[in-house]
Amino acid sequence: MVQNGYFSRKTFAFLRDLAENNNREWFNANKDRYEDAVKGPALEFIQGFAPRLQKMSPHFRADPRANGGSLFRIYRDTRFSKDKSPYKTYTGIQFRHEAGKDAHAPGFYLHLEPKQCFVGLGIWHPDGPTLRKIRGGLVDDPKGWKKVVSAGAFKRRFELSGDRLVRPPKGFDPEHPLIEDLKWKDYIAVAGLSQKAVMDPGFMTEFAAFCRAGLPFVSFLCRALKVPV
Predict the structure, then answer these.
(1) Can you give the chain as a three-state secondary structure string?
(2) Fold of the 9-225 domain
(3) pTM above 0.70, yes or no
């Protein structure tokens, strides 16, 4: 345990200031603040979480590299966006499956943003073939899916979230008992966090408890995708 916690008021103060000054000139002048209050603590958190994650499953990665690892880049991809703000006003950390190469892979996620912190898990915006495999997994094992999402430890902490279809997906029975779950376009579960909880010295332990409670959900998705758990 880190005595004073990994994240602090400085973390959220920087992110608030960045939201108000989202331009390269301000960021370059405050880059040391970013390194000290956001990036550095996040990389330490990733490194500290690695042994706990290894105990849950050897197939998920806690990669503390400054670039290309578990920490998302602060820079936004503005190529196809009307919003040309160059920086993300949050910090994201994803502990993704070894079989995945980007954010659209099964994993555990920590989102840090002023007044909008949360734990996420599952798979966000899967491509078409991946989505069909997941939906096929629900059809093949409806009891297993119901058991996962109705488990007490899961329901006490998480709720399913993401985008959904208005109509049943093509190729699936509109009368299927899980049709509402088959409409999901994202298979993620989310749990809100307070800034106070994130700054607490015991947050690493609490985050690990969230991940353990969500592991059966993530494991179900992995089995549907036929990747090791």
Answers:
(1) CCCCCCCCHHHHHHHHHHHHCCCHHHHHHCHHHHHHHHHHHHHHHHHHHHHHHHHHCCCECCCCCCCCCCECCCECCCCCCCCCCCECCCEEEEEEECCCCCCCCCEEEEEECCCCEEEEEEECCCCHHHHHHHHHHHHHCHHHHHHHHHCHHHHHHCEEECCECCCCCCCCCCCCCCHHHHCECCEEEEEEECHHHHHCCCHHHHHHHHHHHHHHHHHHHHHHHCCCC
(2) BirA Bifunctional Protein; domain 2 (3.30.930)
(3) yes
